[in-house]
Amino acid sequence: MIHKMRILTILCPSLLLIAAMGGGCGRYVDTPAPDDSTAVFTPALDVEPDDTTKLIASLREAAYLSREKGSMDTAFVCLDSALQMSVSSGKFRARREALTIENLRREGSLGRDFIFLLTVLVVAAFAAVASLIEFIRIKNADNKKRAARFLSQIRTGEQQLVEMEQHHQMEIRILEGKLALMEGDNSQLRQDIADEQAKLQLLQEYRKERENKRDSKQRLIRESEPYRRACALIEQGRSLNDADWEALRTKVEEVYPAFREALYADYKPSPLEYRVCVLIILGFKLVEVGALAPTSKQNITSIRKRIIQHIGGPAMRPADCDTYLMSLIE
Asked: How far is the C-alpha of 316 from the C-alpha of 140, rounded, in Å?
């Protein structure tokens, strides 16, 4: 909610400026200029071309040239003179000169309005860019938080056991420090130290048991014929054919029966993506995975990135995919 309020705070000024811009433009839409294109700077045809008419025509021509040169004040003076002289020559000329003066006044005010509208557009564009930057920053922060939460969930059991052991070791050192400073009855502290040592020993035994089971499963894989065949193909620079892959996949799913189901629950990999995942959990290097799959190292990186970002969000890295896959076989 706070993030949304920040973005709205930036966007509101730009919306108000755009509304003001629309109001400024409305004058030109609501009040169109008179259509006098056939009368501006053209000689009158309803009177004889006497000296007065020629002078008026000269003043109009001078006004036209002044406008072309950008001298609007001179153009106004010429047309004012032509207007005064036209009054005695008939209403048609007076109306024509009045319309011409009005058009030139519009042209003179257009430059000021254009600068105002341009300023409004620049400010509105700046506000929009600031809103976009703020949105991207908030989105990136949310993605990083999501990635951190996901990584904490997929930490391998080995990592969690190590952290728990470190915690108990720290508690034991703190209690032993208190015991060294305490005088008199310290039976409770000794009991607390004994309890922490018992917990630490239990964790170490459990960790050792997990390591034995993991090593046993890895031994089953590495001593199998499909795995040895894959290693031989790497040395020969060849890839797995369909029969070799089927044998290796069957052996892996036999040793790690929950792996396929756990992966497909989070992501539906293509046949090539699944093959890459299996080779990664077997401990092959990326170059070796590319040789066996077969595919390029860049494609393997793209596959790892695509899988982990689908599961954990766009802030995840390809290396996090390996951690995730290894967590599925524990």
From this structure: 11
Q: Which stretches within 155-238 are classed as H helix?
A: 157-181, 187-222, 225-236
Give Cα separations from 220 to 73, 95, 216 (angstroms): 98, 105, 6
| Rounded distance between C-alpha atoms, residue 284 and residue 282, angstroms | 6
Tens digits of residue pLDDT in 181-209: 877 678 888 888 899 899 889 888 888 88
Q: What are the tens digits of pLDDT across the range 159-185?
A: 777 888 888 899 989 888 888 887 767
CA distance 327 to 281: 10
Q: How far apart are CA 328 and CA 263, in angstroms?
A: 7
pTM of the model as a whole: 0.54
Which 3 state secondary structure label does DSSP give 324? helix
The answer for residues whose C-beta is within 8 angstroms of residue 266's C-beta and 6 or more apart is: 311
Distances, alpha carbon 161 to alpha carbons 116, 141, 164, 185, 326, in Å: 67, 30, 5, 34, 15
Angstrom distance (rounded) from CA 59 to CA 78: 5
Place of tokens 């005088």: 183
According to DSSP, residue 259 is labeled H
CA distances, 71 to each of 40, 104, 126 (Å): 18, 11, 35
